[in-house]
Fold:
Amino acid sequence: MAAQMTDAHRRFLQVLMSHGILDGSEARKLHRRCCEIHKVYYAHDKLDDFISVINSHLQPLFMQIRKGMSEDDGRPHYALVNLAETEITKMASDYTENELELFRKTMDLIILSENGFAPSTEILNLADQLKTKKMKKKEAEQVLKVFVEDKWLSEKNGEYTLHTRCIIEMEQYILSNYQDVARKCNICHSLAIQSQVCESCGTGMHLPCVRKYFRAQTEPRCPQCNDFWSCDIPGTQK
Structure:
């Protein structure tokens, strides 16, 4: 039988719903605050147990709080995912058809790229090729800004990648719709968009996972085929 939901659990869920995603430190602070406000037993190392109680009650609603990792720095994040809708259609209530088409095309560029990023120039060039309704470049720039604000995309130096929230929510959609190119990280086994790939066997790893895995090794070798890992290890000096 599922453990009882308390007001602390409900408050945590409400805040997460309003934010869409929280990083690990924000989630830990929120866990503590919810327990203190509602005078519920609090243990600093029991966040995942606390969340699993919420998940047991969300299950009949086809929803779940999922834990994922930032591809930039490896920090954990928590996002509320709708399991009933695994496609981009879950975004349909918030965006117009041509905005969704621009998002799909942007996603194509990012996932099919070598480094998990798409330059803004390439995305903006797609704006007047949309089938639903062509977009002016100024409009497209504004739409991209909204996707960043809503945490579907991240932007760095004029290049776009998928936000952690998008990766957590869309993982199954991406794995089934991009079967030939989408890969899971060999270390943490979650979807890897920004990754390094073994030249010998094609094994992929997130950059934070690469950094962690090879930290103690004098000669980096692929965890799958044991060949020399020829990519530059992030965070190491040559």
